[in-house]
Amino acid sequence: QVQLVESGGGLVQAGGSLRLSCAASGRTFSSLGWFRQAPGKEREFVAAISWNGGSTYYTYYAGSVKGRFTISRDNAKNTVTLQMNSLKPEDTAVYYCAASLVAFILKSPTIVDFGSWGQGTQVTVSS
After folding, report:
1. Rg of the chain over all Cα atoms, to the nearest angstrom
2. Sign of CA dihedral 122, 3, 29, 39
3. How confident is the model at residue 44 (pLDDT cuts 50, 70, 90)?
4. How many CB atoms lie under 10 A from the CB of residue 97?
5. How many other β-carbons are positioned within 10 Å of the β-carbon of residue 41?
6. How far apart are CA 43 and CA 29, in angstroms?
7. How many beta carbons lie within 10 A of that of residue 126, not counting itself?
8. Beta strand residue intervals within 1-127, DSSP E
9. pLDDT of 111 strictly over 90
């Protein structure tokens, strides 16, 4: 049974940092990603990392987080991490971990590309 469990959310002041982690179980996924959903808004892409079984990882970021967030994965532990720095109040949202069996090579994934989802973890950035 596939399961994605997020951790690491919380409350932080603007300019601060948080680190989100997601543990995947049930199978190994080629792509792992993060999405977020703010109140009253649609769920949006944040970042993703793809691995096609070789030594190359492909990372993708939304423009709004590029340069501030870093996504990484540990294949041995089947985990994905999102390091969030220089947080802004507009980063406040529920953050969801997502997984796909497809490796996205030089093509940024979208929400429809992910078939497995975690329950979400709240990130609140105060001004």
Report:
1. 14
2. negative
3. very high
4. 27
5. 9
6. 21
7. 11
8. 3-7, 10-13, 18-25, 31-37, 44-51, 57-61, 69-74, 79-84, 93-100, 116-117, 121-126
9. yes
- Our measurement of the distance from residue 73's CA atom to the centroid of its chain's CA atoms, rounded to an integer in Å, reads 10
Q: Is the pLDDT of residue 54 over 90?
A: no
Backbone angles phi, psi at 58, to 5 degrees: -115, 125
Residues 6+ apart with CB under 8 A from 66: none
Separation between Cα atoms, residue 31 and residue 49, nearest integer Å = 6
Q: Which residue has the tokens 């041995």?
A: 76
Q: Say if CB 79 and CB 118 are below 8 A apart.
A: no
Q: Which residue has the tokens 């997984």?
A: 99
pLDDT attached to residue 50: 96
What does the block give as tokens for 122?
Answer: 């709240």
Residue 62 has a pLDDT of 97
Q: Express each pLDDT in 6-37 by its tens digit.
A: 999 999 999 999 999 999 998 889 999 999 99
| Both tokens assigned to 36 | 């977020």
